[in-house]
Amino acid sequence: MQENNITLVNEFFLLGFKVSLNLRIFLFSLLLIVYNASICGNLLIITLVSTSKNLHTPMYFFISQLSISDILLPTDIAPNIFHILLNNGVIITFPKCMVQLYFFCVTEACECLLLAVMSYDRYVAICKPLHYISIMTGTLCWKLVVIIWLLSFSLSLIYILLLLRLKFCGPNIIDHLFCDLVPLQDISCSDTFPIKLSIYFLSIPLVVIPSIIIVISYGNVVHAILQISSNVSRHKVFSTCSSHLTVVSIFYFTLFSVYILPTKRQSSDVNKILSLLYTVFTPLVNPIIYSFRNKDIKKAVQETF
Predict the structure, then answer these.
(1) Phi/psi of residue 173, each to 5°?
(2) Which of 107, 131, 210, 247 could form a disulfide with 73 if both were Cys (CB 3.0 to 4.6 A apart)?
(3) What is the pTM of this model?
């Protein structure tokens, strides 16, 4: 279509990896295995938390919600990546691009908020153990989860509505694996400063506040652990939150590497690999961490099978 004699782009070409056919087939096979393993692993955790009475606690309830997010994220991204690898690129319409980006934002926002709530849960369990049951009630957990999903869907919608104000005059080639913020801004012919400013404000409730909650919560947890005189007790207490700390570290490392600390010298291939880490591989790593480092889940698996 044309507007004021400027041809506006209504579809994009996702370039993917510029590599040989054999390497693309290898990547396709690897990602297919990882994707299927991720779905199975997260479905297993959801099933175990739903059926095992020993796992009917706030911590495992939030873990099951994290697994739902870890199913939605790769399901939104991976099928399109498979298509790109098999066809050496793919054309995606502007509406489909926005829908993909919307659900991507929803799952990422949900994970940020969930990790913050989970860190608060560990803070209450370790620093206020006598009041844990009265504070982290089932009603509160459900309310927190509903608020998290509502915030994720609503704030992500605002985010997409802001992006819809951008105009794309060409070229329409996105040197990436999926529709993401930075590549879309790079090819836009609009002034992106107001959009960037608005997105920074939106990041406050989605990234900044959850990060502060995580830092404060684990700061208090570490202080409480250091007050324990027995090394055995200290190790036992720390092991209850080590899995969550590992998941938080992996998530925020990849998030900051892609969106917060990118450099001009950082190649597009590096960005694509980092994007694969948090969209496809991290959803697989999360259930593995919680399974292999958690005695309750191991016990639930043994009882189930």
Answers:
(1) -90, 125
(2) 107
(3) 0.88
